[in-house]
Amino acid sequence: MLISNMEIIPDTRIQEHLGVVQGNSVRAKHVGRDIMASLKNIFGGELKGYTELLQESRDEAVERMTMQAQQLGANAVLNVRFSTSSIAQGAAEILAYGTAVILE
Amino acid sequence: MFELIIFLVLLTLGYGFGRYAEKRHYRSLIEREQKLSSLPAVASRFPPMRGAYRQVLVNGNVVISVDYFKRFLAVLRNLFGGRVTAYESLMDRARREAILRMKEQAEGMGARYVFNLKLETASISKGRRDTVGSVEVLAYGTALIPEAAAG
């Protein structure tokens, strides 16, 4: 499965468009991480726990998107985009979407 | 009186550690950017038509928080308006860090370019008082790996 955020693959033609596929993941932070984070809020700096958390959920979103594309019988997802939003206090939603296609 | 002392202590801690961390971070950013300057990240949507490349999605992210001193400066700025330089440098650092992480991932795969670089910023806990003011910066793009290197 080829996943790319470009619309064009050199020397390859798109045989069929299968429409938009998407995958999402909502994660909440746990208390331990929140305590560390509030300390960091005084000193400033990177919140490593959150960075990892969001990276994990992004991977999961991509995985779900890939699964959806597989069910449609695609062999590539092109023009992939990410989007993040905080839907509630302490929880973030991560969305990955793209176009499922069959490449020649 | 006691509250004032706590406030001043927090302010000093934030100023001291924040300044130190920022200086150290800028040094490391410049050093790593120079090391990775041979791997350009381009915002172009169109890949080179010549040469066979394998495409892989790469990304890098970073979540940063604002220190107490900078937040105080920003609150002051809110009164008078104008540029909030304290936050500008913070976002600049975060964005460059995210791009570097993406590039490091691409370099590990033996990529030659990163195309269609996109940047996204999201505040993951906004609006709430007395909580962590944290911002996530995400950089993603498509790494082009020469077929020969991919094996």
Structure description:
Chain A: Pfam families: YbjQ_1. Chain A: This is UPF0145 protein C3L24_02615. Chain A: Belongs to the UPF0145 family. The complex is a heterodimer of chains A (104) and B (151). Chain A is of the alpha+beta class and 104 residues long. Chain A has a single domain (2-103), classed as Translation Initiation Factor IF3. Chain A is 36% helix and 43% strand. Chain A has a four-stranded mixed β-sheet with strand order 1-4-5-2. The longest helix of chain A is centred in the middle third of the chain and has 24 residues, at 48-71. Chain B has one domain: Hypothetical protein apc22750. Chain B (Translation Initiation Factor IF3). Chain B has helices at residues 2-35, 68-80, 85-108, 147-150, and strands spanning 53-65, 113-123, 134-146. The radius of gyration of chain B is 20 Å and the shape is elongated. The A-B interface holds A 2-11, 34, 37-38, 40-47, 50-51, 54-55, 58, 62, 80-86, 89-90, 92 and B 10, 13-14, 17-18, 21-22, 45-50, 52-53, 55-57, 59, 61-70, 90, 97, 115-116, 118, 120, 122-126, 128, 131-134, 136, 138, 140-142.
